[in-house]
Amino acid sequence: MKVTYEHTIPATVDKVLEAYGQEEFYVARQKGMGALTVEVLKWEIDATGAVRSEVRVSEPSKQPSFVRKSDVDTYMDHGLLDPAQRTLSWKVIPSQGADKFKLQGKVEFHPDGDLSLIHISEPTRQPATSRMPSSA
């Protein structure tokens, strides 16, 4: 299954990329979406401004009670923000069921006047929920 959608943020692409490149913004965004814990294991910015991240996130389980083994879901979030290409590639690996569940995608940032048009493409075998903030 592949999910594609677009989202407009009321800010310039440069401002959005700047925000997405900040560790504090990432943590606040995850917490704002209900994360219980956000543990940044790696946040590296190279000479080109690209950001590589590895983050362990725990949040209340969204699985039906008869399926879940815990009230909390934990996953690793691997990301590569490339400001030069205006893309964010990401992959989520759950702590349980990683062999049965894949969620990964690529976000493209496009200027739309004074706004940022974000094109999101998520090739996945499971339905995906948007995790985009309403503004940067």
Give keywords.
136 residues; mainly beta; seven-stranded antiparallel sheet; 13% helix; 48% strand
Protein architecture, described:
This protein is mainly beta. 13% of the residues lie in helices and 48% in strands. The protein is built from 2 helices and 7 strands, in the order βααββββββ. Strand 6 (103-112) and strand 7 form a beta hairpin.
Helical amount: 10-25%
Low-confidence regions:
123-136
Note the main sheet. Answer: 7 strands, antiparallel
The gross shape turns out to be: globular
Write the element-wise H/E pattern from the N-terminal end onward: EHHEEEEEE
The DSSP helix count reads 2
Q: How far do the termini sit from each other?
A: 29 Å
Annotate the secondary structure layout.
Blueprint: E1 2-9, H1 13-20, H2 23-32, E2 37-45, E3 51-60, E4 72-82, E5 87-94, E6 103-112, E7 115-123
Antiparallel strand pairs: 1-7, 2-3, 3-4, 4-5, 5-6, 6-7
Short overview:
This protein is mainly beta and 136 residues long.
